[in-house]
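Slide 14.
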Amino acid sequence: MDKIGVCGDNCSLCPRYITSGRINLERLKEVAVLWKKAGFRDKIVSPEDLACFGCSPKNNCAYHRQMDCAAGKKLHNCGECADYPCGVVLEGFEKTRSHMEKCRKNCGAEDYSVLDKAFFRKEEYLDMIHNKKFKK
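Slide 15: predicted structure.
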């Protein structure tokens, strides 16, 4: 089963998460360049600043409002919440959509495909989790 983050990212497919788990600093440098090119960061950051070991307040995460809410409710992700989709989640979806076009324009087809499966399908992944939990 895939590891789905609080916001709906598929961590199992995320180059940042995968590379951090292997503690591969050279690959994290490459991922940092991709993150800037895709529009996820304004500048190239150090491998240590980019590293991600899963949803945690320690991570430099763009979806911290969702993370704080889910942590307060003791949920693994927003799809497990009875209030899904709330305004905070919808803001997260909009933030993600805002990156799609820049990513499509600036990244090659292979990189875009990886990022699409890892990040741009948040709503699909969270819907599946929510529907399964609440039997819709």
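Speaker note: Residues 6 and 77 are 4 Å apart (CA to CA).
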